[in-house]
Structure formats: structure tokens, C-alpha cells
């Protein structure tokens, strides 16, 4: 994965942990026992790892529909986990009740006792809110459990508590800063932990101009926080407890260090083992002087999903929306307005209040996203186009 003395030791430890993870998966989960060869008593090798099958995130909904709730991938029943989440897809995700890697990311940025974290990640059904809440409290800091979408109340809390750090998406931080300015509320933020959506260079520069140091993180609901920026800002350090690979998109073939490809991750855990978990995200592993693995950050998607306001949107979700409302043709359009993602559902037909309400409700239920509606003349939308991304 990397070169140098420290890297050699890390690689050897990682190969040993991979072998232990695979042995535990084979012993505790029949689904994995049928698909994974016995790694033997020693450590794994990169060659043997590359021969193992991929488990794609996009496959989880079908697996879980066939064998609820976890598709046969968990070593314990749902009652054996501390927390139980549900992400769009739908995808059931067990949680162990720990910080899932966020604590190391916060501590690396110098966050700790005396700080107040404004946590705008959701606390309901998805894990990010609790993940950062746990991590901040473990670091000895206070937390404002804000969630998202209640901007006026959050600005009031900012006036009262003067938080020193923010956790959430880049888009929402920008919204809060503008709202605070409009309300003449002083901003005391000095750090921002950003994940869940792309961070344009323009927003990073705007935050820096306000003396807010940005720490970009990479994570997923299934894995937790996989990688994080440090004050050196020389790439994202891969968190302990994970083995990352970069492969040619659509295959399991490894790519050389530095090349952009699909990120494959194996966490070292036994309760919910995910062996060679294909995230669908594009990135690259870059060398670092201290021998730790670095990710270049999120560089796009290898499949047909896109991220909108921190949530995955897939073309297949349109069919679910239209199954609830009899519309002949529609498509999702994603663009940006004032440095913020915007989702629009373009619909053929004549607007009626009842249909508009039903469509808004269906989009929210299927995608967990709000949207604008744009009604178009019959026959005006292209056939076979469920989604277009204009960003």
C-alpha cells in the first residue's frame, strides 16, 4: 500500500488483521463461509486479497430484502447491536454504539476540552449525528445536537453558546454563516469537520477567509469515518481499523499507488463483517512521509449514483417515486444555486395541488431529500433519462 519502514510494519499488521477478519467472518457468518476461501493460519497477501469477491453497497438492498434485516451478513441478530439505522435504499445498518472513527479525526485537529461542537448531522435513523456526538463527548467537549434544517433556531443557539467547531456538510455550513450574518450573530467557529458532500474549492476558500480551518473527512454509514484531514492538510489519513484498496472501476483489479479508481474497504471487525466492500466512490491512495496511507479525497462516483446534500440519489429511485403518483414521464435534475445542491423533479403534465403534494411527499419518502417541482409540456422530456447532473 505504501513504502518505507513504517509502512512495511503497517502493511504486515494489516495483512494479519485481514486474515483474522476473514477467519472470523467464515466462522460466524454462513453467508461469508460460502463465499470466502480459508486464508490459512498466517497473514493474507495482497494477491490473495485481490482474488476475493467484491461486496457492492448497491447489492445490499436486494440482499436485505431476501433475508432481513442485514442480508445474512451479520454475526448477531438485530437485538445484539447497540443501535439500528436505516439509510435510503433502504439499507439496514447495525451500529456498535462507538464513535466509528470520528474521535480520532476530531482529536487530530486539536479539538477537545473547552470546545463546543455544533453538530448538524441528523440524529434520526442515520448514524452520522450520533457518531460525532459520541466522538465530541469522548474528547471532553460539549455538543449542540442541532441536526439540520432548523436554521433559525440553530442561529439562535449559535448566539447563545458560541460554538467553536462545526460538523456537517459544506453546503449547510455556508447557509448557517449567511444566516448568522443576516441576523448579526457573531461567529466563533474556528474549525469545521466536513463530510457527506463535495467540498468545492470556492467554499473552502470562503471558509478560510473567515478563519475557519476546514478538516475534510470521508466516511459511509456502513464503515464510519474511514479517513480524515490533519492540520498538515496533505491528504486524508486512513483511520485505524480499515484496509483500503483502489481498483479499476467495475472490477476487483488493484491499481498502483497514486492512480484514481474505486475505493474498496475491509474493516477489521467481526459483528458485521464487510469483506472488500465496494463503496462506488472514486479516489486515490497517495504516499506520505510518515508511512501512513492517505486518500486524495472524494473524486466522484464509479457507478450511477450521485450525492445530493449528502444523500445518495440513484436513477432507480425515480421509479419508486412515480409508482406512488401516476405521471407519464419525469426526471431528476441536480444543479447548484448559491453554493448549495438543488434537486428538481421535472414532470410532464399540468400541475394540480394534489399531485404536487403527492410528488413532494413521495420524493421525501424515497430519497429523504426535498425538491423543487418543474412542470413541463407533454412530450418535452427526453426518453430514457431518469437523472441529469448539471453540477
**Strand fraction band?**
25-35%
> What is the count of distinct domains?
3
- Note the total helix count: 11
Number of strands: 21
Strand order of the largest sheet: 5-4-6-7-8-9-10-15-14
By helix and strand content, what is the structural category?
alpha/beta
Low-confidence stretches: none
The span between the termini is 33 Å
Outline, from the CA principal axes? Answer: globular
The average pLDDT value, as a whole number, equals 89
Rg, rounded, reads 22 Å
Helix content: 25-40%
Largest sheet: 9 strands, mixed
Concise account of the structure shown:
With 391 residues, this protein is an alpha/beta fold. The protein has eleven helices and 21 strands. It folds into three domains: 5-97 and 241-295, no CATH class; 102-218, ANL, N-terminal domain (Rossmann fold, 3-Layer(aba) Sandwich); 306-389, ANL, C-terminal domain (GMP Synthetase, Chain A, domain 3, 2-Layer Sandwich).
Amino acid at each position: 500500500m505504501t513504502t518505507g519502514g513504517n509502512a512495511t510494519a503497517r502493511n504486515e499488521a494489516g495483512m494479519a488483521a485481514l486474515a483474522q477478519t476473514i477467519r472470523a467472518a467464515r466462522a460466524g457468518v454462513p453467508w461469508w463461509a460460502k463465499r470466502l476461501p480459508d486464508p490459512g493460519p498466517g497473514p493474507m497477501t495482497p494477491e490473495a486479497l485481490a482474488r476475493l469477491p467484491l461486496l457492492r453497497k448497491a447489492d445490499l438492498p436486494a440482499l436485505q430484502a431476501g433475508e432481513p434485516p442485514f442480508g445474512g451478513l451479520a454475526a448477531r441478530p438485530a437485538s445484539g447491536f447497540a443501535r439500528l439505522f436505516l439509510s435510503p435504499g433502504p439499507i439496514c445498518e447495525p451500529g456498535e454504539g462507538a464513535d466509528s472513527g470520528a474521535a480520532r479525526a476530531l482529536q487530530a485537529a486539536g479539538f477537545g476540552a473547552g470546545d463546543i461542537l455544533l453538530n448538524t448531522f441528523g440524529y434520526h435513523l442515520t448514524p452520522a449525528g450520533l457518531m460525532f456526538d459520541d466522538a465530541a463527548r469522548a474528547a471532553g467537549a460539549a455538543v449542540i445536537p442541532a441536526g439540520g434544517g432548523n436554521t433559525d433556531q440553530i442561529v439562535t443557539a449559535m448566539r447563545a453558546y458560541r460554538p467553536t467547531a462545526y460538523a456537517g456538510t459544506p453546503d449547510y455550513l455556508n447557509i448557517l454563516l449567511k444566516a448568522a450574518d443576516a441576523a448579526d450573530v457573531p461567529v466563533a467557529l474556528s474549525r469545521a469537520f466536513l463530510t457527506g458532500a463535495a467540498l468545492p474549492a470556492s467554499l473552502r476558500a470562503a471558509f478560510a477567509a473567515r478563519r475557519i480551518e476546514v478538516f475534510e473527512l470521508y466516511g459511509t454509514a456502513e464503515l464510519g469515518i474511514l479517513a480524515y484531514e490533519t492540520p498538515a492538510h496533505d491528504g486524508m489519513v486512513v483511520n485505524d481499523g480499515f484496509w483500503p484498496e483502489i481498483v479499476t472501476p467495475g472490477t476487483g483489479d488493484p491499481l498502483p499507488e497514486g492512480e484514481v479508481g474505486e475505493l474498496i474497504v475491509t474493516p477489521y471487525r467481526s459483528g458485521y463483517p464487510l469483506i472488500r466492500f465496494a463503496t462506488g466512490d472514486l479516489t486515490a491512495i497517495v504516499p506520505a512521509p510518515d508511512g501512513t496511507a492517505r486518500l486524495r479525497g472524494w473524486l466522484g462516483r464509479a457507478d450511477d449514483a450521485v450525492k445530493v446534500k449528502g444523500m445518495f440519489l440513484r436513477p432507480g429511485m425515480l421509479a419508486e417515486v412515480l409508482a406512488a403518483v401516476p405521471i407519464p414521464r419525469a426526471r431528476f435534475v441536480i444543479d447548484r444555486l448559491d453554493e448549495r445542491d438543488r434537486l428538481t423533479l421535472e414532470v410532464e403534465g399540468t400541475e394540480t395541488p394534489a399531485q404536487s403534494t403527492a410528488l413532494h411527499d413521495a420524493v421525501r419518502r424515497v430519497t429523504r431529500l426535498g425538491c423543487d417541482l418543474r412542470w413541463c409540456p407533454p412530450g418535452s422530456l427526453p426518453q430514457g433519462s431518469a437523472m441529469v447532473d448539471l453540477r
